[in-house]
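Renewal narrative, Specific Aim 1. Our central claim is that a sequence can be written position by position from structural information alone. The example that follows is taken directly from our test logs and has not been curated for this report. It begins with the structure tokens describing the chain, in the order in which they were read.
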């Protein structure tokens, strides 16, 4: 991502959303819904046929469709284990969790093609500084839409093991530079939805500029890249 060094720059996270499908996977930083992805509580047995049919209807061969959909399921399953939040104090109505995970490749498919986007620890640091300088702690909404009244951030920290700022239990593997936060939920109706699992995590949203990179891909990314390359050759 292209994020200027100027703390007053335009690139920013301006809202945090309470979402049913925890996303570090929406357009901009609230990455938009992927062309097809698992629905909440959907099993792999239900998702794969639905996904494969969709991909085949887009012109892909059956074998390639199976490979793409299997990879999407694996990515979604791994991501959801990482990014869900947790009720920290039921009596005080406090919920905590990750807002941005540093160096996490996020699959995207849109009019520009298929690719991954990622935020580094330095980029996240700039984003967090601007977020607080502009006083956005109470800018919370529901599913990137209606404002969430009575919800605000009161705690925020960026993982930095050298400074002794360690990730909470269950997130030991996240990279330095990942952003975590805690929110007070004074809205009783929203708190009930947090407790019953309607909202499972945070999704931040903002406006950013993309920057192409040639950094080395992970093994999973290489596999996906090879799949897309083969599909491209078939289409041609």
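The sequence written for that structure reads:
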């Amino acid at each position: 991502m292209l994020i200027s060094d100027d703390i007053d720059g335009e690139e920013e996270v301006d809202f945090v959303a309470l979402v049913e499908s925890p996303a570090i996977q929406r357009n901009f930083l609230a990455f938009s819904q992927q062309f097809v992805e698992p629905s909440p509580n959907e099993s792999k047995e239900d998702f794969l046929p639905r996904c494969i049919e969709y991909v085949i209807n887009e012109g892909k061969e059956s074998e390639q469709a199976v490979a793409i959909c299997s990879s999407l399921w694996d990515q979604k399953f791994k991501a959801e284990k990482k990014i869900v939040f947790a009720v920290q104090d039921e009596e005080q109505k406090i919920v905590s969790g990750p807002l941005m995970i540093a160096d996490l490749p996020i699959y995207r498919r849109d009019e520009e093609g298929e690719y991954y986007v990622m935020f580094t620890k330095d980029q996240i640091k700039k984003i967090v500084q601007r977020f607080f300088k502009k006083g956005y702690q109470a800018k919370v909404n529901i599913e990137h839409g209606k404002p969430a009244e009575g919800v605000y951030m009161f705690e925020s920290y960026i993982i930095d093991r050298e400074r002794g700022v360690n990730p909470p239990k269950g997130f030991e593997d996240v990279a330095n530079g990942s952003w975590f936060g805690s929110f007070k939920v004074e809205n009783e109706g929203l708190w009930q939805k947090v407790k019953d699992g309607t909202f499972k995590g945070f999704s931040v949203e903002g406006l950013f500029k993309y920057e192409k990179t040639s950094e080395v891909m992970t093994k999973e990314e290489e596999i996906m890249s090879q799949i897309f390359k083969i599909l491209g050759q078939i289409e041609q």
